[in-house]
Amino acid sequence: MCTVVCAWDPAAAVPVRMMALRDELTSRVFDEPDAWWSEQPDVIGGRDRRAGGTWCASAVSSGVTAVVLNRPERRVADPDAPSRGVLPLLGTEHWHTWGEYVDIAGMASFNLVLATPDRLTWWSYDGAELKDHELAPGTHHITPTGLVEQSVWARRPLEGVPTLDGQLDALWGAWRAEVTGVPPSADPGAMIVSRTVEADGATDIYQTVFGQFIAARPGRLRIDHARLPYRQNPWTTRTWSVTDGRLAP
C-alpha cells in the first residue's frame, strides 16, 4: 500500500473517509474486500492469498479502519517474523493496543494508519524503532516515507455532507478525479506507478494494482473499489451493516 488519504472528523456523521491505493507486484494474487476472516467476522478487507493477511481492514461494528504501508528501510523481514499483513487485522481488533499482540522485531518496516471514530493515529517502524503520531481533525496524506505536510490533498476537500449513500462521483468526485486517467509512472515516489522489476529471479511488474474509497461509521461501512484504478475500469460499490451483532450486506 503506497498512498493513504484520510479525511477524519470525529464530529461528523461519518467520521472516517479514506482513499487507499495499493502498489504491489502484479503476480501477487489477492481477493477483493469481503469478510474473509472467521475469527473476526465483521472485518472487511482485501485478502492477500500468499500470506492470508491484508493491506487494509475495516471493522463494521466499530467503524475502525487500519491500513499498512511498506516503508523502504527494511524491505525483507527475518525468516520467522510475522507478515505485515497481520497489522490491519490487529488494529481493527485491538485498536491502539495492537502492539501488545505482535512481536515486530524482525518484521519488514512499515507505517500503520489507524482511524477510529474518535482518534486518528499512525505508527512508523523503520526496522529498529516504533513511533506513534496523533493527528488532528482534517485531511491527511500518508505515504511509505510518512506524513506529507501541506499535501495537495488537503486542498481538495470532499464536497457536501458525508454520506454512505449516493452515486460514486457524488461522494468521491474530487478524489476520484485525481486517480482516474492519471498515467502511471516509473518514479517510485509517484502516486500511480508501473515499472518492470526483478523479483525472485524473474521479471515482474510493480504497479498500482488496487484502489478503494472507504466511508465508515460504527455499524455501517461503504467501500468503492477498482483494480488498476487509474484506468477507466468499472468501480464496485459495496456496503455492510451490523444489526443485532450480525453482519449483513
What does this structure look like?
By secondary structure, this protein is mainly beta. The protein has a single domain (3-248), classed as Penicillin V Acylase, Chain A. The chain is 7% helix and 43% strand. It has helices at 87-94, 168-176, and strands spanning 3-8, 16-25, 30-34, 43-48, 56-59, 64-70, 110-116, 119-125, 130-135, 138-143, 146-147, 194-199, 202-217, 220-227, 236-243, 246-248. The strands form 2 sheets. Strands 1, 2, 10, 11, 12, 13, 14, 15 and 16 form a 9-stranded antiparallel sheet that branches. Strands 3-4-5-6-7-8-9 form a 7-stranded antiparallel sheet, covered by helices on one side. A hairpin with a 2-residue loop joins strand 12 (194-199) and strand 13 (202-217). The longest helix is centred in the C-terminal third of the chain and has 9 residues, at 168-176. It is globular. The mean pLDDT is 92.
Note the topology.
Layout: E1 3-8, E2 16-25, E3 30-34, E4 43-48, E5 56-59, E6 64-70, H1 87-94, E7 110-116, E8 119-125, E9 130-135, E10 138-143, E11 146-147, H2 168-176, E12 194-199, E13 202-217, E14 220-227, E15 236-243, E16 246-248
Antiparallel strand pairs: 1-2, 1-10, 2-13, 3-4, 4-5, 5-6, 6-7, 7-8, 8-9, 10-11, 12-13, 13-14, 14-15, 15-16
**Number of strand segments:** 16
The CATH class turns out to be Alpha Beta
Poorly predicted residue ranges: none
CATH fold assignment: Penicillin V Acylase, Chain A
Structural class: mainly beta
Helix content: under 10%
Task: Give the C-alpha Rg.
Answer: 17 Å
How many domains? The number is: 1
The CATH architecture can be named as 4-Layer Sandwich
**CA-based shape:** globular
Q: Taking all residues together, what is the mean pLDDT?
A: 92
The ordered string of helix (H) and strand (E) elements is EEEEEEHEEEEEHEEEEE
Query: Could you give a short account of the major beta sheet?
Result: 9 strands, antiparallel
Quaternary structure state of the chains depicted:
single chain
How many helices in DSSP terms? 2
CA(first)-CA(last) distance: 26 Å
Beta fraction: 35-45%
